[in-house]
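Exercise (ungraded).
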Amino acid sequence: MALLEFDKSKPMDIIPMGRAAIDFNPNELNRTLDQVRTFTMYLGGSPANIAVGMAALGKKSGFIGAVSDDQFGTFIENFFKNRNIDTSQIIRAKNGEKLGLTFTEISSPTDSQILMYRNMAADFAVSPEDISEEYIKNSKILLVSGTALAASPSREACFMAIRYAKKHNTKVIFDIDYRPYNWKSLSEVSIYYSLAAQMSDVIMGSREEFDLTENLQYGNNSVSDYEIADKYIALGNKIVIIKHGKKGSVAYGADGKAYKVNSYKVKLLKSFGGGDAYGSAFIYGLLEHWELPECLRHATAHAAMVVASHSCSEAMQDIVSIDKFINERKDEQVITPVDWKVVL
Amino acid sequence: MALLEFDKSKPMDIIPMGRAAIDFNPNELNRTLDQVRTFTMYLGGSPANIAVGMAALGKKSGFIGAVSDDQFGTFIENFFKNRNIDTSQIIRAKNGEKLGLTFTEISSPTDSQILMYRNMAADFAVSPEDISEEYIKNSKILLVSGTALAASPSREACFMAIRYAKKHNTKVIFDIDYRPYNWKSLSEVSIYYSLAAQMSDVIMGSREEFDLTENLQYGNNSVSDYEIADKYIALGNKIVIIKHGKKGSVAYGADGKAYKVNSYKVKLLKSFGGGDAYGSAFIYGLLEHWELPECLRHATAHAAMVVASHSCSEAMQDIVSIDKFINERKDEQVITPVDWKVVL
Amino acid sequence: MALLEFDKSKPMDIIPMGRAAIDFNPNELNRTLDQVRTFTMYLGGSPANIAVGMAALGKKSGFIGAVSDDQFGTFIENFFKNRNIDTSQIIRAKNGEKLGLTFTEISSPTDSQILMYRNMAADFAVSPEDISEEYIKNSKILLVSGTALAASPSREACFMAIRYAKKHNTKVIFDIDYRPYNWKSLSEVSIYYSLAAQMSDVIMGSREEFDLTENLQYGNNSVSDYEIADKYIALGNKIVIIKHGKKGSVAYGADGKAYKVNSYKVKLLKSFGGGDAYGSAFIYGLLEHWELPECLRHATAHAAMVVASHSCSEAMQDIVSIDKFINERKDEQVITPVDWKVVL
Amino acid sequence: MALLEFDKSKPMDIIPMGRAAIDFNPNELNRTLDQVRTFTMYLGGSPANIAVGMAALGKKSGFIGAVSDDQFGTFIENFFKNRNIDTSQIIRAKNGEKLGLTFTEISSPTDSQILMYRNMAADFAVSPEDISEEYIKNSKILLVSGTALAASPSREACFMAIRYAKKHNTKVIFDIDYRPYNWKSLSEVSIYYSLAAQMSDVIMGSREEFDLTENLQYGNNSVSDYEIADKYIALGNKIVIIKHGKKGSVAYGADGKAYKVNSYKVKLLKSFGGGDAYGSAFIYGLLEHWELPECLRHATAHAAMVVASHSCSEAMQDIVSIDKFINERKDEQVITPVDWKVVL
C-alpha cells in the first residue's frame, strides 16, 4: 500500500506555490560574469520548474504565485500556458515589484555562482486574500516552496494555503528550498520552516536545510538524520527525504522503511537544476501510487537527465524517456534498502 | 485532579510575554480628550498588568519584552522591581523605538475611548535571539499576549518562546488580547492566532477574538462556542475560555465539563481593566491546583474589584482581599455548571 | 527706513509653517521623569508657539502644517481657533501619523531634559500639493521652521512654499530651529538648511545652528559670526541674527549696522521657551516697520517674560504688557550698537 | 570669446555624476520582449555613457557614483578602467543594492520600450559623505544627471557636489535626464530640478523636462522657450539648451545669441542613445573653447553616428571620425542662428 492516498475525484494533480523567475544563462562559458557578453533567457524558480516538470510528465498542474506586471510576467504566463499549466491563480504584482532574475556564472564545469535580483521580488506579493479555497480543494497536492515563507505577505499566503489544504484533504509537500536572500535572520528561517514542516505530509530537503529548520531547537548537528525523520513523522508526515549531495540521500517512510538513493553517473554540464527534476519525477510516482523505491528511482534518473543539459525548465522529460534511461542503466544500483539509523 | 499539572521544581511561576506600556488617565473626567488638562501616569499593557497581578497575589513572576531606552523604560523596570518581578529578560530597544502610550478618554462612566501611540512601539523589538531557553525552562507557565504576534521580530520571538516552552514542559497560556493596531490585515491576525492556539495549553479570549482567529476557516459566525472549544481541545488545549461581555463567559475543560461565569455586581468607574485582573486570579488558582470553578470564582471577583478603581496595575489585589470579597458576596451565584453546548 | 518693506495690501500678517505638537510638563518638579506622576498638557512646537505669540500681539496669523487625525489634532485646531489663528490650511494626516509629544523632565531649575515622541510624526505629512499659492500670496510673511525640512514630504512642501513666497513678494523668515530627531545625517542638515538660507529674507538661529548649516562648507568654527552674516546678506538676506545663549546675540542688518542683544535679568522657571517669544515680538516689530534696535528690545523683553512662566504657548504676552515690562526695566541696557566684526 | 572659461590648471576635464547601469539589448529584433531569447550586455546609464564618450574624445574623465558589490559592479569598473576613466570615486553599495538594468524591447525600428530594474538601485547609494571636495576641485566640469536627484542619499550627494563645485570654480552642467522611476511625485521633481538649475552653469534638457522643472511655478505650457532661457540665464547659467525631438533644438547663450540645431539625416537603428553622444561632443567643444555653433555641430554629428549603431557606450567616436562625418555632410545645414524668441 502506498504511503499517501490521494482523492482521485480531485481534478488537479498538483499546485506548486512560490516563485516563478527568469534565469539568464551565459552563452560564453568558463569565465566570470563580468566577462560574459550574451545571455539566454529561461523560465526558472524551483516551484515553477516543478510545475513544468509535472506537466512534461503528463500531470495536470496549476500554480499559485505573483509575477511582475510587465513583459517578463507575460513571458512566464505564456510559458506556462504553452505547456498546459493552469495560470488562473497567477496574479500580477501591482506596486512596482519585479520578477526575480538569476544570472548564472559558470566559471568552470564544477564551479558556478549566481547573481540574484530579488529586491522587491514580485513573488512575495501574493497575499492570503489571493488564495482560493476552491482551487486548493480541487487539487490532490499542494507543494509549498520554502522560499515563499521568507517574506510577507507571501509567508501568510502559504500558511493560508496549507490551512485550506488540511481542511480539504489536499496533501501538502514541503520542499524546503532554502535561499539565503530575503530572510532577516536564521531564527526566522527556523521558526517558519518548522511551523510548515509540522503541518506537511511530505518534506524534502538537504541536511543543511534540515539543520536550518532545527538548529535553534537542537544545536549544532547533535542529531542524526533518523531523529529528524522520527520527529516529523510523529508530527504527521508520511515521507521525509534528507539529501546529502554527492553522498546520496535517504528517504524515510512512515511505514518504518528507509532507502538510500544514489545518483546515476552522468557528465555534468552545470551543478544545479537536478533538484526540481528529482522532485517532479518523485511526485509523479506518488501520484501513480508507486512504492517508495520506484518513486525514488525515477526521481534520481530525472535529475541525472536534467543536470546534463543547459536549462532546467526546458530539459524536463516525459515518462517514456525516463523509463528508457532507467532501462539503459539497469545495472546501476541506485536505490538500496537501509537500516533506519543509517549514517551517510 | 486539576486539568493542568505543573512541574513544582521550576522556581518561576509565570513569565508573561509582550508589551509593557504607559497609561495616561485623565484627572478631569466626563469630557473629550481635547478638553483634558492633566493626566496621571500608570503602568499598562495587558501582560505587564498580569505580571503585576500575579506578584500582588504572591506568585513569582518574570517578564519577557522590550521597553524604550529612555526614562519611560526606566519607569517600567523600577515599577516591576518594586513589586519583586524579575526584570532580567527585559531588553532596551535601541533603534529609537518608544514605549507604547495609551491616553484614555473617559467621556462618561460607560463610554471610554483610547488614543494609542504605537508607531515604532518598543515592545515589538524583542527578537528570537533575545529569548533565553533556560529562563523559560525554569518557569511553570509562559503567558503569550496575542498583541505580541502583530509584528516582527516580536512575532518570531513568541514562536521561539513557545517552542522552548513545549520542549521543557512549561505550560503555555495564550491570551488572545486583540488590538487592531499594527496588524496589516485580518488574514494575518487569523493565521498567527490560529498557529499559536494550536500549540497552547490554555486559551482565553472574547468571542470576537475567537472569531478573528477562526473566521477565514469557518466563515461568519456559523460555528458555536463549543465547536471552537472542541477544536482547540482536540489540538491539545486543556482549558478554553470564551467571553461574551456582559452576558458572562464559558470555560470549557478537557475533562468535558463546562462552567458559566457571571460578573459580580459593582459600580463601574471605567469600562476596561477587568480582563487582566481576571486572568491573574484565574492563573493563581491553576497554580494552586484548584478545581476550575474555584479558579473562575476568584477570577471574576478580582475583575470586579479592579474595574471599580482608577488604574489597572495599581489596583491589583492580594488573595486575602479577594477571598474577603468573595465571602462578603457569597449569596451571588457567579459560577454555574452548564451543558457543553450552552449558548450565551 | 526699515530693512524690510511689506506689502500692506496683503491681509494676513504671518504664516508659520511646521510642527504643532503637545508639551507634557510635569506637575511634580525637581525629579527625574520616571518619578513623575501627573502632567499638564500644553500646545507646543516652535512655529505653533510663534503663531500663538503673534496672535497674542494682535497680528493676523495663519498656519501651514499637518496634525493627527484624532483628539490631539482637534486640541490643536481648537486652541488656534480660540486665539483667532486661521486654521484653513491645517491638514489631518491620514496614515496613522501621530502628533509629536514632548515630555519635559525638570530635574532642577537649571537642568531640564526632554523625551520626544516623533516616530511617524504628523507634522511631516504636509506635502507640496497641500500648499496653496493663494494663501501664501495673501500673507506678508512666511516663517519656515527648520525642523520642517528634516523629512519628506514636509521638506518639499517647505521649498514649494518658499517658491510661492518669492514669486509673490511674501517675505521669508527662516528660523533654523534645529532638533536632532528625524534627520538622517549632519550632511543632510547642512544641505537643506543652506538651501533654505540662501532663499530667505531673515535668518535667525544659534551659533551652533549656523555651524550645522555651514560646517561642511567651512569646517570647524574657522569662521567668524560676521563672515556668516556677510555670506547670507550677499545672498539676499536683510537681517541675520546669531545667538550665543547667555552671552547674548548679535543682529546684523543689510544696512551694515550690527547690534548686540542681552537678556533681561529674570528668575528662570525653566530653561526653554524663550526663543519663540523672542521671535514673535521681533517679527511684530518688523511688521510695525520699527528700526532694528526697537524690534530687538521687544524680542528680548518678551523672552524674559515667558521663561519665567510654566508654559510657552499660554504665557505669550500682548504689546501693552511687553511695553510695560520694558518701561519698568528701562535702566537695563539690553541693546547696544556694536562693531560689525564683534566677537561674543 | 567662449561663454565658459575653464581653469586650465585643473587636471581632470569632467566628472559625470549619477548612475552607471547595464543595458540588455535583444539579439532577436522586431518582437516583444517576452518573445526574445538572447540578450547582449552593454554598459549604460546616461552619465556613464557621457564618461565613455568624453574618454573616446580624448578628454580626462572621472566619475562619481555607486555600483553594486557584485560581478556587475566589477563589469562597470573594468569597462571604465579599460577606457582610462578614473574610478577612484566609484563606491560599492553595501546593503544589497543592485545595479540598475535596462532591458530594451525593440518591437520595430521606430518603436522601442524599456523594462527597468531599479528597485534598490545601487546608484542612489552614494551619500554626501562620499563626496571628495578635492576631487571636484581638481576638475574643470561637474556634470550632474537629474536622475541622481530622484532619491536619497544620492540627492544630497549631488547638492554637496554642486556646493563644492561652486566653491572651487568647477563649472556645473545640469543634464536634466528625467526618468519617471523612483520619483515620488511631480512636485518633488519640480522642486529638486529647479534647485539644481538655479545653481548650474549649463542646463540641457528636452522641453518636456523643462516643463517638469517649471510646471508648478508657471502652469501648463504658458511660457515660451526663451522665457525659460531668460530665467535661468538671469540666475547665472551661461548656456541653456532646450530640445524638441525631431523638430530640433535651440541653444541660448548668455551673450544673447540663439542657435537652432537640426539632426543629420541617418538611418535609425534604434530610437535612443543619441542624447549622451550629443552631450559628450558638445562638452568637448566647450572644453576646446569653441564658439557655440561649432560645439553644437559636433554634438548633432556625434548623435547621428551613435543612433545608427547597436549600443550607446561602445559606439562613442573619436574627434577625427566626427570631423570626417561633418566634412562628408558639409552640405547639410544643421546649425542656424535664430531670433531669441524663435518658436519650434
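Further reading is listed at the end of the chapter. For now, observe: Chain C touches chain D through 19 residues (CB under 8 Å). Residues 292-307 of chain C form the longest helix (16 residues).
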